[in-house]
Amino acid sequence: MRRIIVIGGGAAGMMAAITAAEAGADVVLLEKNEKLGKKIYITGKGRCNVTNACDTEELFKNVVTNPRFLYSAMYAFTNLQTMDFFEESGVPLKVERGERVFPISDKSSDIINGLAKRLKQAGVSVRFHTTVNKVCVTDGCVTGVELQNGERLSCDACIVATGGLSYASTGSTGDGYTFAKLCGHTVTDCYPSLVALKIAEPFAKELEGLSLKNVALKAMQGKKVLYDGFGELLFTADGISGPLVLSASAVVTDKFDKGEITVSLDLKPALSKEELDARILRDFEEAKNKQFRNALDKLLPQRLIRVIIGLCGIPEDKQVNSVTKTERATLVDVLKGMKLHIKKTGGFNEAVITKGGVSVKEVNPSTMESKLTKELYFAGEVLDVDALTGGYNLQIAWSTGYLAGVCAAEEA
To answer: 157-160 and 376-378: which strand pairing?
Structure first.
């Protein structure tokens, strides 16, 4: 019986351990925390967006980095198989807006409990409070791992599923990158991703906590469109966040050295400029004896009115019936293209995932095995693959974990 060591008890690690054990291997899962799935616990605001129920081909469109590398993994263990896996593990699921999949209970702990149940059923030996120092290699082949306490564990194969650098408090401190480098692997530059964006505009502070639904966002570098999306946005004390912004961050996070990045917000994407002007005219007609600042409450949230007035430069105490056509056109332009200057992203301590990791050029996409070291496998966020929000990153973890587990167990 082949002995397999899995390093990391997160999504990819648990899936790899379960799959390898169910395929007949003797599996030991090493986790440096006191419990499994600490990062799963906080995903989706504690609800755990476990995957996305879109067509498999659609999954790849939402992968930002190295989607082609993931073809074998995503087809070996699809999003539909992920859903079946959790249903069979006693975790009923539901599909919400945007095809996002959650446990019916809205509790991420149910996902972790389902995985823990499968680990136990498969006979996986789990060791907590166990930190790995290095992966041991002899003659280009993995022979075991060395623990921080000096203990050495031998194995026939090792799967590294240690996560990235985001949310270090959950144990993601880049250990896997160190193991990979010591085995001769290239680790690409790492950036925080799916993270809030910090803006230069001082009005962010007065908008803190304001949530806007159904807005369109375009991230630009010069005239180049980096990201174009639609959804929900949240103002923070020093910038913008929310699902729409997190997805935009996945595309811009590694571009700041190439020039200034700006964001254009369309606050009324359902209306053309002409339709919006007609709507404003109607509102103004109803409020013709009011001052400008008191004529926008049907159009905008109260807290946003002062900021928009400041951006369009129309005196706030001007009578509505004396606002000119040119001034109205300026207001429409601001509402259809509120410009924000992005200074930087939030740090790894705020980021949902890490962009960058073990170079996929040095990993076999059909098996997740290293091309440089035999019997060394990688799964999950430690790899240089990442996606937008919506359950896609967890699907990458399930798929790569599954493939690594199967192949490590079957390797002759």
So the answer is: parallel
Element of type H or E holding 228: strand 224-236
Are the C-beta atoms of residues 187 and 359 closer than 8 Å to each other?
yes
Q: How far apart are CA 12 and CA 20, in angstroms?
A: 12
Name the H helices within 4-107: 11-22, 38-42, 56-61, 71-76, 79-88
Q: What is the pLDDT of residues 129-146, one digit of tens each?
A: 999 999 999 999 999 999
Model pLDDT for residues 163-196, shown as the tens digit of each residue: 999 877 777 889 999 999 999 999 999 999 999 9
Nearest to 162 by CA among 180, 142, 183: 180
- For residue 289 the two structure tokens come to 């004896």
**Number of Cβ within a 10 Å radius of residue 383:** 30
Tokens found for residue 286 = 């109803």
Question: Which residue has tokens 């960058």?
Answer: 356
Rounded to whole angstroms, the Cα distance separating 164 from 171 reads 9
Distance, CA of 298 to CA of 283 (rounded, Å): 8
Query: Could you tell me how many helices (H) and strands (E) the chain has, helices first?
Result: 13, 21
Residue among 163, 75, 52 at smallest CA distance from 403? 75
Query: Burial level of 326, CB count in 10 A (0-12/13-18/19+)?
Result: exposed
- Is residue 234 within 8 A of residue 222, CB to CB? The reply is no
Read off the DSSP letter of residue 369.
B
Q: Which residues pair with 241 in a beta bridge?
A: 234
CA 200 to CA 239: how far, in whole Å?
8
Question: What phi and psi values does residue 163 have, to the nearest 5 degrees?
Answer: 75, -165
E strands in 62-189: 63-65, 93-95, 100-103, 125-127, 132-138, 141-147, 152-154, 157-160
How many whole angstroms separate alpha carbon 205 and alpha carbon 217?
20
What are the beta bridge partners of residue 52? 100
Model confidence over 344-373: pLDDT tens digits?
A: 999 999 999 999 999 999 999 999 999 999
Q: Where are the beta strands (DSSP E) in 96-210?
A: 100-103, 125-127, 132-138, 141-147, 152-154, 157-160, 191-193, 197-199
